[in-house]
Amino acid sequence: xxxxxxxxxxxxxxxxxxxxxxxxxxxxxxxxxxxxxxxxxxxxxxxxxxxxxxxxxxxxxxxxxxxxxxxxxxxxxxxxxxxxxxxxxxxxxxxxxxxxxxxxxxxxxxxxxxxxxxxxxxxxxxxxxxxxxxxxxxxxxxxxxxxxxxxxxxxxxxxxxxxxxxxxxxxxxxxxxxxxxxxx
Length: 184
Prior knowledge:
Layout: H1 34-45, H2 51-73, H3 77-87, H4 96-107, H5 116-148, H6 157-166
Helix pairs in contact: 3-6, 4-5
């Protein structure tokens, strides 16, 4: 057997396959023109959406990105501890908006004109109670964070805790995991 010689036995030639269409038979539809084929391909790749559908898809994409970023930002152990710390306490700041709006509405009642000064004192006293509560919360949180996660930076956590305190409990996001007074 030589390297460059033909083999002695010829290989059998394959039989041609029968055509799918019978000769003289017709197709189900005419062949699309090049322009029609390209338009159909473009429509599959980039569907032309109605403005309403386009807005809906864009909104869904934005929600998905926002949820992903929100979950990443809220996953730090310092923020988780702050959320649990705020949610476990009774916070007078939680009711700030309704109370201050009520005080403001009371100052607009003309029959209470002689007593308006007392309403103003009450609003300042309530604000002082809120500030004192935030200071106490922050001091206890710093001590707790130093015990559980030493060396963790505190940047932004004071405002994060204050904003969480000011929000009604049922409107807080992420939702509270623990009840008031519960150990965490």
